[in-house]
Amino acid sequence: MSGRESRHEPWWVDTGRRTFWTSLQAPRRFWLKGGLDTLDGPARDTVVTAQVEATRPAFSVVIGIGGLFLMVVGAMEAMGATPGIGYGAALTVLAGLCVVAIAVALWRLQSWYLRLTLTLVAMGMVGMFLSVPMPGVDTYVLARIGLFNLLPITLLALLVRPMATWLLVAVVVLVSILRVALHGTPPGGLWLHALYLVAIVALGLVLRGYRTGFAIDAYRVRQQLWDQANVDALTGVLNRAGWNRVSVPLYQDAAATDRPTSLVYFDVDHFKQVNDTWGHERGDEVLQALGRVLHARQDDRIRPARVGGEEFAVLLVDMTEEEVMGFCRRVCDEFAQTVDAAGVTLSVGVAHRLPGEAMHMQLKRADGALYVAKRRGRNRIEVDGSAPAAGHGTAGDTA
């Protein structure tokens, strides 16, 4: 075993190394997408949203610094400490104040397109008033250009979405082209100026690629830790702790808005007999089969979990009693088809929420309905009798 293989390195060291090699081996992914295309849709949306919110304060501060640059330069022009470039000290200070106002708005606004538009406007204003002299004004602006170019390097490191990244690059390039078009070849020659511009963009994109790479891996590590703590490793649905974390807030929100809520217990009949006859491996396969059936139906309204050995609970929100019964029957039928050779069935207990009822009381009623199903011969669905019935769902419904 090599020294490198024998060392246990933290995930962030591996992330840095992989990000470096990705920049060389898959430049399109690194430079254009920042590695976000390695995630599926929901994960990518989560990572993008998290990064946007995490970088929002720093992003606003950088834009605000651009406004302060303009205000300070305008003040220096008013004092005669630096030559102007044709806009006048007062107008330069006013432009700086506008950019600072945009920075404050960026911190508060939620619309991504409006924030992007204001960002591009702010960068255009800073670029023009700081580094593009008015026609006919012959002022050496190299130091002012350098001051302006500090901003895109920092902003590119903070930007997340590819569209925003390349639009910012376009603004920086357009400002540079306008400067050359109005005042000719800059000192040092056009090619050196172009190299300077490319270096600015490249540095910003390198920082952006590394930040995105670390954000993606941090998300994966966090998701892995969450799964380890909240997901049942055997069946793939939530465990009891995870179900409490997810279902309690969902239940409370539904109760607060008086939306229909049902709780269902599924219990595998004669599960001990399966273990005794076929072995624990076959018993695990039975539990996995039920886990797959429930997990396939999981969405914002349906939250299943394994809460005991062969016992599963499901929270259903915004579903009528007819829909809940249909859900239970479909789960029972599909499970029976999947494990037909094992000869096992499901007993089901259902409780629909009563007005003002707490979750633990509704769970107790669902558990009671489950025991009624067990006593009445198993392989059946029982609805707690204290729940209001609408011509259906009475005790004795079977799968």
TrEMBL record:
The chain crosses the membrane at residues 58-79, 85-106, 113-134, 140-159, 166-184, 190-210. GO terms for molecular function: diguanylate cyclase activity. Pfam families: GGDEF (PF00990). GO terms for cellular component: plasma membrane. It catalyses: 2 GTP = 3',3'-c-di-GMP + 2 diphosphate. InterPro entries: Diguanylate_Cyclase, GGDEF_dom, Nucleotide_cyclase, Rev_trsase/Diguanyl_cyclase. NCBIfam families: GGDEF. This is diguanylate cyclase. It comes from Aerolutibacter ruishenii.
